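Entry 14. Structure prediction run on the chain below.
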Amino acid sequence: MTPDRRFDEDDRLSRGRKQSVLTVSPAVAFLLVALGIGLGAVAFWLGGHFLGGRGGPLHDPNAKLRVASPALPLDAEENEAVELFKKVKPSVVNVDIVQVSRAVWSDQTSERQTSAGSGFIWDDDGRIVTNYHVIADVQKRHNMMIRVVMADRNAYDALLVGAAPDYDLAVLKFAPQSQPSRDAIKKIELGTSHDLQVGQKVFAIGNPFGLSLTMTSGIISALNRTIESPSHTAIVGGIQHSAPINPGNSGGPLLDKGGRLIGVNSAITTPTSNGGNVGIGFAIPADTVNRVVTQIIQSGHAYSPDLGVKLYDQQKLRRARYDRGVMIEEVTPNGPADRAGLRGMRVNSRTGLAEPGDLIVGIKGEKIDSVEDYERVVRGLKPGEKVKIKFLRDDTERQVELTVGEA
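Output returned:
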């Protein structure tokens, strides 16, 4: 019963409060209303006075444009970047891959851009260099075409001159029916990569995420990195740099402070498959680009250095307790290795047992411990170059000199 009594007491108090409000005299009520109006007016006046004094009125019909302070002169580093962009901009292009579809019941066609990359004008004839992986779909699918967008935003159809998947490079040329004026063709200035140094400034210009003619800068972070090509071979001598590059920069130029081409941007390291730049970009070195692009222009494809050997499976070799080197399984008849006297695995005609091939443990003074080492070193050789090969035969270390061939 105690809770009920409390409720009754609260109810009586509530009724008493209501009653007291209802019995206020008209005179008192009038005074209270007047007092409230007065206090509100005073508060409104004070608020307007003090706020208006600090910030002024919300609008001023006499407001005028502010006078801007003069810009400071560009410093030497800024001038360097500005002039570089002006110089190189006309040589950089977007490379768009377009899918062409034809309507089922008519001759009308439609186009859809499927991917995009970057590129640059290589020579006075208007040939363009880009990455192979940018245009790979064009070789694989019949309804794909290449469209090049130049710095003036004019677009032109382009044809594939040739490609080198092992080096992730391709060369394009404007289609005969879609030619820019001769004045619009500005070839890029070519530099070298063998004399680069870690720490020197670099610049990248390209088309990241479709944002045309974007320039970024950084430094060379490391040299002689290995880049994996679209054909899963090693591109040696790669340049690692910190200039921010992202999807769409592929095929664009990496430049030194003079605006010379020192590499072709090809890859980034990213934590996830769809991630962006984390400060680790890779470029194919200009010396490699010069050699491979020239070969493509000459013949439509590039030549790779070749020793004329087929290597034995590395896992089987390790299971056979060879803990270093690469073993020759076969030599190409009359190839570089065959002419130098190297030999592959064979069956002893007298015993009928398989005999091991020569175990290559060094090339051109570099230690060879694995297939990866072999590919990295051989990729850095030049056809026609003479190199010394160190190998084991019958547990005896030997050395021969051979002339590098080409494949």
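The first strand starts at residue 92 and ends at 102.
Filed with the rest of this week's runs.
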